[in-house]
Design goal:
single chain; mainly beta; four-stranded antiparallel beta sheet
Amino acid sequence: VYIECCYLLFHSSLLMLHFLNSQIHVLSGHTNTVGSIVTQAVNPQVITGSHDTTIRCWDLVAGKTSLTLT
């Protein structure tokens, strides 16, 4: 997933935010496979859906979950 010059790599339940080939954050919190990723151009935010039945909004600047829906 590309966000301007950033990109996300994901493997199972981990998402890794990279900028110019340098890892910035590992976004961890899901306990099962991530099945959906949606990016938002307005704020540096990513929304993920997982097979752990949660949806998470990620603050990409902080590298943390800003909201979890169950």
